[in-house]
């Protein structure tokens, strides 16, 4: 195949939430780029508002009014709202504004389409797999392209800025030298229950907990219900589940929720078979992120490529949207300060500032997410496990320390304002 050589000022690798949102952030500040059921907390909506697309989704998806946790072992509802009032957990009570600011579950495809609609179609290059990265010395001027990437189709791209948004097993993060992700020791099954005649559920988040496992139900619309199950890994079953057979996933789920309320079984039975998935969540050790090389000159990463984390706080996509606005702000400041030119030296400084701003924030999210899952699942167990023999201490940590004391106070940590994008010419 004849080699094609092109030049672009900024190249984004990855076309998921992080990649498209980064592309849109840069478009909003005037920079031309090339690039290829999610629960969103208030920090994500702040970012989407900065990107100018929040209104597309808030007009369709309703915020939750309430969340409930039920202990399947004894059927007791762990409702941690204040008993002195009739206000629910997700109302705008003092100290809980973080959850009142539009906590919603949206279709992932709808979010991707909302972002993609704002991008000129010529800026997106589909089916272009990254093969290798080169960094070359450049002159001290605005016309130098210091990064060369080679694509699988034979195309060579010269760029001034390379942003890796290519997921958990990112080639860009490996090139930077970030250590590989580690297995969390847990597994997660997910799906979308579809009820053409309406599911009839209240628009609230429900979670059912047992030793070593959690099951969540999150209505998306009046017809669709997103659900998930998280449990401790069982090596004897993992290999079979990894095949991704949707019928096996559904059957295993129905067997594992024995003793749970009928609503749990209903959403599994009504699942769109194409939506069923099984994954062993992985994460990056927070100290690898704190002390690792997250950028090299004008090469950096965002989203899961930077901070893969377990899904226990629902912050993977939210943190990625934060990254995109912060990175867009720093690159945009450089672009505007230099009169619409891309200065390599100035961009290097701004990207270093981006890394400094995100390093500790995301390391904290990785830690909090892992610990949140560990304590909610009482630290051990798996599919089919029971509460027999489990110490009272773990249940005390979960029911009293976490749900009643720690969880309501996560607000100050999750309610994060990533700032606004500078005004540029689009």
Automatic annotation (TrEMBL):
The keyword Ubl conjugation does not apply. The keyword Oxidoreductase applies. Belongs to the 3-hydroxybenzoate 6-hydroxylase family. Keywords: Monooxygenase, Oxidoreductase. It comes from the Eukaryota. It holds the Pfam family FAD_binding_3. The lineage of its organism: Eukaryota, Viridiplantae, Streptophyta, Embryophyta, Tracheophyta. This is FAD-binding domain-containing protein. It comes from Papaver atlanticum. InterPro entries: FAD-bd, FAD/NAD-bd_sf, MOase.
């Amino acid at each position: 195949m004849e080699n094609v050589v092109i030049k672009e000022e900024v190249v984004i690798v990855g076309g998921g939430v992080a990649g498209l949102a980064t592309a849109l952030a840069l478009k909003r500040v005037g920079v031309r780029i090339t690039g290829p059921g999610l629960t969103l907390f208030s920090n994500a909506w702040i970012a989407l508002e900065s990107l100018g697309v929040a209104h597309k989704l808030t007009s369709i998806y309703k915020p939750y009014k309430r969340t409930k946790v039920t202990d399947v072992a004894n059927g007791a509802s762990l409702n941690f709202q204040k008993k002195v009032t009739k206000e629910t957990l997700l109302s705008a009570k003092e100290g809980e504004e973080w959850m009142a600011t539009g906590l919603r579950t949206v279709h992932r495809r709808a979010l991707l389409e909302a972002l993609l609609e704002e991008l000129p179609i010529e800026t997106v290059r589909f089916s272009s797999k990254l093969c290798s990265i080169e960094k070359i010395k450049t002159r001290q001027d605005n016309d130098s392209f210091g990064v060369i990437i080679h694509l699988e189709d034979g195309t060579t791209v010269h760029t001034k800025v390379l942003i890796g948004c290519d997921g958990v097993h990112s080639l860009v993060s490996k090139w930077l030298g970030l250590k590989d992700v580690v297995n969390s020791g847990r597994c997660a099954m997910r799906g979308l229950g579809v009820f053409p005649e309406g599911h009839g559920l209240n628009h609230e988040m429900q979670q059912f907990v047992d030793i070593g496992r959690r099951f969540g139900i999150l209505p998306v619309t009046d017809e669709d219900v997103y659900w998930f199950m998280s449990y401790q890994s069982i090596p004897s079953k993992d290999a079979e589940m990894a095949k991704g057979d949707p019928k096996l996933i559904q059957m295993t789920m129905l067997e594992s929720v024995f003793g749970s309320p009928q609503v749990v079984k209903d959403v599994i039975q009504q699942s769109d078979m194409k939506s069923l998935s099984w994954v062993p969540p992985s994460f990056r050790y927070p100290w690898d992120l704190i002390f690792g090389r997250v950028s090299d000159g004008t090469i950096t990463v965002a989203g899961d490529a930077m901070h893969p984390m377990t899904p226990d706080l629902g912050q993977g996509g939210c943190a990625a949207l934060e990254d995109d606005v912060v990175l867009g702000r720093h690159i945009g400041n450089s672009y505007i300060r230099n009169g619409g030119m891309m200065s390599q030296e100035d961009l290097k400084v701004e990207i270093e500032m981006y890394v400094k701003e995100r390093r500790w924030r995301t390391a904290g999210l990785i830690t909090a997410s892992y610990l949140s899952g560990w304590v909610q699942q009482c630290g051990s167990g798996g599919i089919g496990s029971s509460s027999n023999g489990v110490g009272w201490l773990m249940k005390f940590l979960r029911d009293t320390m976490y749900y009643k004391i720690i969880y309501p106070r996560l607000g100050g940590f999750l309610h994060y304002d990533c700032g606004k994008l500078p005004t540029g010419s689009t």
